[in-house]
Design a protein that fits this description.
By secondary structure, the chain is α+β, with helices and mostly antiparallel strands. The chain has one domain (5-145): Butyryl-CoA Dehydrogenase, subunit A, domain 3 (Up-down Bundle). The protein has 4 helices and 5 strands, in the order H-E-E-E-E-H-H-E-H. It has helices at 5-19, 55-72, 78-109, 122-150; strands at 24-29, 35-39, 43-45, 50-52, 113-116. A 5-stranded antiparallel sheet has the order 4-3-2-1-5, with helices on one face. Helix 2 runs antiparallel to helix 3 (78-109). The two termini are 21 Å apart. 31% of the residues are buried.
Amino acid sequence: MIQRIQTLFLLAVAVLSGLLLTGNLVQLSTPGGTLFNLGFNGLGENGGGIIQRLWPMSVILALVPLLAVTAIFLYKKRNLQMRLTMIALLLSLGTVILGAFYIVTFDRKIDVTVVWTVKAVFPLLSAILSWLAYRAILKDEMKVRSYNRLR
């Protein structure tokens, strides 16, 4: 069962979420020309140090690839695999919501303009791929249940 389509979806989730652990999700620009970066390490100045550590964001960004890789190897326990995939989906959506919260909060303190990067879309793509993996695992589970009824 490890060669199923959900394995590819979960692998893509792990890769996309793993890429979020490096670099910046979003850049914030002030009218004075100062650039701030929002990423795994927290909120920091461009080329400078970290201004504020954002632990909830860091924990969520680290958990999603870990859950996706763990779910890949739980192919014999489909119910647990479905639960972990759903948790990864919810955490990916939580990343989007938490990132928006941090941007709005920082915008209230200092007037900033958001400069979007490609990585800003990765949590949403991870959520969609997790949902597709969940559906594929559910189809497998239904197929196994139907075969058990025939016996």
